[in-house]
Amino acid sequence: MLAELMNFLKACWRPSSDRYVHTGSDTVGRQDGLLWYKDSGQHTNGEFSMAVVQANSLLEDQSQIESGPLSSLESGPYGTFIGIYDGHGGPETSRYINDHLFHHLKRFTSEQQSMSADVIRKAYQATEEGFFSLVTKQWPMKPQIAAVGSCCLVGVICGSMLYIANVGDSRVVLGRLVKATGEVLAVQLSSEHNAGIESVRQELQSLHPDDSRIVVLKHNVWRVKGLIQGSARRLVKAALHEAARKREMRYSDLKKIDRGIRRHFHDDITVIVVFLDSNLVSRASSHKGPSLSVRGGGINLPANSLAPCATPTELGAT
């Protein structure tokens, strides 16, 4: 429950570009045991951070950020594509989505010469049909491929529009800064889970017994303090601390458990935090901006997997 709550609470915000400095120094992300993270990167509409913690022997979660052209046309549109694919039963489906969904989206965007909900819907359908075709071909030799699957959460920022598409139980939250009051409003764009739910408030209070203001009723809305800044790496670590707490063990001991066995304590976890610069978002979708391609990392060693192992890659901004 806390992992879902953190996705809701920590839809972090950052002030506009004239008030912050880009501090990213890592070019391909960093590995710390089973934790892979990229603390800061720049996309067409602002900045982002990513983090992945692995529990399965083969990482079943896949994720990506693609920023720049959203079609093959010189005229655009341009923007940012974010995808998180929570695989189950194996990594084959999530890897397939990671390799094909964005390419289908660019193809349909080129055909329609614009971004739309219909373009995203067609990209989902084409990806699903492609994987079904792969399953049909491999079924006689590898029947177990029919037992794998994946959730699919996508966000597309194009011009002044934010498109969200979700199949499965992943979560997306929009954190919105109210300039007049300095408050941050959190708007969950998928299934509901917020501090307005009594059980959530009780859980927060039990986790922070020494903080009487961990949840506060302000303007008739329940709020959680500390909703100002954060990173994907912090969110992943918060989820790990919760996994350790539920097992009544120390976080440091949980970190020593290798992948595979770690799955008995928690699933693969992927978090992407996207900071939107209002000045950049307001620009027309014809604004090119930097081109970027990042895939979430993890430890993928050759094993009895149906799909070939993928290596995390990144193309720097150009």
Q: How would you portray this structure in words?
A:
This protein is of the alpha+beta class and about 325 residues long. It has a domain at about 35-190 and about 270-300: PPM-type phosphatase domain (Phosphatase 2c, domain 1), CATH 3.60.40.10. The protein has helices spanning about 1-10, 90-110, 115-140, 200-205, 230-245, 250-255, 280; strands spanning about 30, 35-45, 45-55, 60-70, 80-90, 150, 150-160, 160-165, 175-180, 185-190, 215-220, 220-225, 270-275, 290-295, 315. Strands 4, 5, 6, 7, 8, 14 and 15 form a seven-stranded antiparallel beta sheet that branches. A four-stranded antiparallel beta sheet has the order 1-2-3-13. Helix 1 (about 1-10) runs antiparallel to helix 5 and helix 2 crosses helix 3. It starts with a helix and ends with a strand.
Give a short synopsis of this structure:
This protein is an alpha+beta fold and 318 residues long. It has a domain at 36-189 and 268-298: PPM-type phosphatase domain (Phosphatase 2c, domain 1, 4-Layer Sandwich).
Keywords:
7-stranded antiparallel beta sheet; PPM-type_phosphatase-like_dom; 4-stranded antiparallel beta sheet; protein serine/threonine phosphatase activity; alpha+beta; disordered N terminus; 318 residues; globular; 7 helices; 27% helix
- State the CATH architecture of the domain at 36-189 and 268-298: 4-Layer Sandwich
CATH superfamily of the domain at 36-189 and 268-298: PPM-type phosphatase domain
Number of strands: 15
Query: What overall geometry do the principal axes of the alpha carbons give?
Result: globular
The proportion of residues forming helix, as a percent range, comes to 25-40%
Number of helices: 7
Derived from helix and strand composition plus strand pairing, the structural class reads alpha+beta
